[in-house]
Specification:
5 strands; Rossmann fold; binds adenosine monophosphate; single chain; alpha/beta; 9 helices
Length: about 190
């Protein structure tokens, strides 16, 4: 199974992805985590991405698509399936991802879109305390989301069924809703 989790920053994509990965035995792929790890280790990618991450600007599509192509080609990911968190974030990334999925034969794709009210998002992000979670950077990231990432949902909805999930409330309850939805989709697909 391949799961893509969409939604603005701060809706709980990371938290939910980790739980889904754990419960369904999928590999959690977070592009934000990959980049933060590269910054921490001071790799070439990290040096390139550091400033962008800190100011909430997107890293270039070419770099991001290259990273995703590489991870999705790995044997373990192909064997276990994955949950993709933080990618695609632009239409260009969405178009490229569609192609990568086709070429690599991933054909059990499920898309979840998490919905949370904007005031709640700002409150949550400020409380999270990451270096890119200052009020200015948060506002900027939400703007970038609206301009560049929101169109991904419309684009994908032409090809995939996207399930909206309300992201406010008890984390486990929200997660159970997602798991039930994914499991019922699996049963339908195998009929
Ligand atoms: P996240 O952990 O998903 O909130 O991502 C943190 C930061 O990493 C973002 O604000 C971007 O600077 C960068 N980033 C993560 N994923 C992507 C992506 N798919 N395309 C471009 N930049 C990304």
């Amino acid at each position: 199974m391949q799961v893509i989790i969409l939604g603005p920053p701060g809706v709980g994509k990371g938290t939910q992805s980790l739980l889904i990965a754990e419960k369904l035995g999928l590999i959690h792929l977070s592009t934000g985590e990959i980049l933060r790890d590269a910054v921490k280790r001071g790799t070439k990618l990290g040096l390139l991405a550091k400033e962008k991450l800190e100011s909430g600007i997107l890293v270039s599509d070419d770099i991001m698509v290259g990273i995703i192509k590489e991870v999705l080609s790995s044997g373990e990911v192909r064997e276990k399936g994955f949950i993709l968190d933080g990618f695609p974030r632009t239409l260009k990334q969405a178009v490229e991802l569609e192609q990568i999925l086709d070429v690599l034969g991933y054909n059990d794709v499920h898309i979840i879109n998490i919905l949370v009210d904007e005031n709640e998002i700002i409150k949550r992000l400020i409380g999270r305390g990451r270096t890119d979670d200052t009020e200015d950077v948060i506002k900027h990231r939400l703007e970038i989301y609206k301009e560049q990432t929101a169109p991904v949902k419309d684009y994908f909805s032409k090809k995939y069924k996207i399930v909206d999930i309300h992201g406010v409330g008890d984390i486990e309850e929200i997660n159970n809703n997602i798991i039930l939805m994914l499991e019922s989709a699996k049963v339908k697909n195998s009929r």
